[in-house]
Amino acid sequence: MRNPGTIRFFLFLLSGYLASPAAAETSQERVALFLSGPDCSAQHQSIVAALTPISGVARVDPDSVPEHVLVDVSSGVVVPEDLLAAARRALPSAVSCQVEIMKSCISAGRSPAGR
After folding, report:
1. Closest among 26, 32, 97, 28 to 64, alpha carbons compared
2. Tens-of-pLDDT digits for all 115 residues of the chain?
3. pLDDT value at position 8?
4. What's the DSSP call for residue 114?
5. What pLDDT does 103 receive?
6. Which pLDDT belongs to residue 37?
7. Is 43 exposed, middle or buried (0-12, 13-18, 19+ CB in 10 A)?
8. 80: helix, coil or strand?
9. Domains along the chain with CATH numbers
10. What's the rounded Cα separation, in Å, for the pair 98 and 101?
């Protein structure tokens, strides 16, 4: 016979996990950064390396759309301007590459994080 205290304990743990904010699915949004300039293609790795560690960034995709870096983020955790600033800081001053936030919607398929 199983111990009722043990069963209650595991049910308590399970209910805490299900109610925790970490278990709830967070909404995602995609931010598109537009890259223009002759040196931008050589800077993809630097930009990806600068964006990836930012809290709230789920995925950085520099390959799906030419001249763009698509960034999937958790809504409300990071704002597009923070991504823009990080991308710009990643570029050496002598490089001819401009980074701007794309205001229109770009989709390169559904984010793997949202599947």
Report:
1. 32
2. 456 655 555 445 445 544 445 545 679 999 999 999 999 999 999 999 999 999 999 999 999 999 999 999 999 999 999 999 999 999 998 899 999 999 865 555 555 555 5
3. 57
4. G
5. 84
6. 96
7. buried
8. helix
9. 28-105 (3.30.70.100)
10. 10
Nearest to 102 by CA among 48, 53, 29, 45: 29
How far apart CA 10 and CA 6 sit, in angstroms, is: 6
| Alpha-carbon distances, residue 114 vs 38, 45, 109 (angstroms) | 33, 24, 10
Token look-up 């989709």 returns 107
Question: Number of helices and strands (H, E) in the chain?
Answer: 3, 4
Contact by Cβ (8 Å): 50, 102: no
pTM: 0.69
Query: Long-range contact list for 25-28, CB < 8 A, 24+ apart?
Result: 26/74, 26/75, 26/77, 27/74, 27/75, 28/58, 28/72, 28/73, 28/74, 28/75, 28/111, 28/113, 28/114
